[in-house]
Write a structure and sequence with these properties.
This protein has helices spanning about 15-20, 30-35, 65-70, 90-100, 120-130, 150-160, and strands at about 1-5, 40-45, 50-55, 75-80, 105-110, 140, 175-180, 185-195, 195-200, 205, 210-220, 220-225, 225-230, 230-240, 250, 260-270, 275, 280-285, 285-295, 300, 305-315, 325-330, 335-345. With about 350 residues, the protein is of the alpha+beta class. The protein has a six-stranded mixed β-sheet. Bound molecules: guanosine-5'-triphosphate and magnesium ion. Guanosine-5'-triphosphate binds near residues 11, 36, 59 and 145.
Length: about 350
């Protein structure tokens, strides 16, 4: 199980994860110096035979692309809102994205409770419920990373969350978000397993078509003989050099003949959207540009849905059912998103994709 954070810059996402897991997710020197999250961070909470994984995202607007790269394949989010500052622009932006990606549960965490009175916190909860009525069924937690208030209650809730296992029978798909050379072991990649299972010794395909062998597995930060969808995996790979792959590549059990540059999607708009609109498109760790063709209307108003064809500037390894986020041509605001419905390969042949 993996849970991500979300929320405005400085609202206490990293401090919350540190209070929950004991791990401070900052790893870049600049992050440590500035007290700011820039890249994705990772933390783990072992619990009996299980381990909860956390992806910590940056709240600063400038690093939104990094935030989006962390959300693929995740069903649960902790939306952190500072009791002191309340609802801010990236609270709204991140929440809009979580909603478009149809997260199973968005837990609302009011952080920095030690800095406010109970009356102020009650007022903030009312404001949140009024501004975002769809959070009516979401659990709320009042926490302080400084005093420990509310941390045990949140932990108790998190360990009871159920991992969705509807994707385990599908072929293995894994999005690479980091790669490095480990002395004595060779190439190691880390990423989120989206579906299926992988075991030691398995042969997998890179999105380039190259075959690789799995020499060792760390699942949720523990040495393992297998891994599966819904887990963070570190895989030690044989048969490939670091220079042959890049962040955003996929590892799959199916031969990757399904890179597509045209997609059919049932699009849900969160901003007005017009025909032929240039867009930034976020698909798991990949970020590319393209254009929207609305198939049965000329424009879309917020909350409306329509069938659209996306014409991509670079082919994507996409499967039916994958979730996408579309942002404006200048990448300044989120336009919409939705599941991929049908894809067409570069050569124009419709392909049967794994769902
Ligand atoms: N008093 C108090 N301070 C807190 C609490 N949580 C976080 N802080 C402080 O608030 C500042 C920002 O906290 P972070 O956890 O780095 O915030 P963030 O949301 O991860 O920020 P970005 O990753 O850059 O978006 C730090 O100085 C923390 O020490 C809290 O519960 N109480
Ligand atoms: Mg942070």
């Amino acid at each position: 199980m993996i849970i991500c954070t979300a929320g405005h810059v400085d609202h206490g996402k990293t401090a919350l994860l540190e209070a929950l897991t004991g791990t401070h997710t900052a790893h870049l020197p600049e992050e440590k110096k500035r007290g700011l999250t820039i890249e994705l961070g990772y933390a783990y909470l072992p619990w009996k035979d299980n381990v909860l994984g956390f992806i910590d995202v940056p709240g600063h607007q400038r690093f939104l692309a990094n935030m989006l790269a962390g959300l693929g394949g995740i069903d649960y989010a902790l939306l952190v809102i500072s009791a002191e500052e309340g609802i801010k622009p990236q609270t709204v932006e991140h929440l809009g994205i979580l909603r478009l990606l149809h997260f199973t549960e968005i837990m609302v965490v009011i952080s920095k409770a030690d800095r406010c009175t109970e009356t102020q916190i009650d007022q903030l909860i009312q404001d949140i419920q009024q501004q975002f009525p769809f959070l009516a069924t979401s659990p709320f937690f009042i926490t302080s990373a400084k005093t420990g208030q509310g941390i045990d209650r949140l932990k108790t809730h998190l360990i009871k969350l159920q991992q969705k296992n509807d994707r385990l029978h599908q072929p293995f798909r894994y999005a690479i978000d980091r790669l490095f050379h480990l002395k004595g072991s060779g190439l190691v990649v880390t990423g989120t397993a989206i579906s299926g299972k992988v075991a030691l010794g398995d042969e997998l395909f890179l999105s380039t078509g190259q075959k690789v062998r799995v020499k060792s597995i760390h699942a949720q930060n523990r040495e393992a003989t297998q891994g599966q969808g819904g887990q963070r995996l570190a895989l030690n790979l044989g048969g490939v050099e670091k220079s042959n792959l890049t962040r955003g590549d996929w590892l799959t059990t199916l031969a990757p003949d399904f890179a597509c540059d045209r997609l059919c999607v049932q699009l849900e708009a969160s901003h007005p959207l017009k025909e032929n609109q240039v867009v930034h498109l976020y698909h798991y760790v990949r970020h590319i540009t393209g254009k929207v063709n609305l198939l049965d209307c000329k424009s879309l108003a917020p909350q409306q849905q329509a069938l659209a064809e996306l014409i991509l500037d670079e082919p994507l390894h996409i499967a039916v059912g994958d979730k996408l986020i579309l942002r404006s041509g200048d990448d300044s605001h989120t336009l919409g998103g939705r599941k991929c419905w049908k894809s067409t390969a570069r050569n124009g042949i419709n392909v049967a994709t794994s769902g």
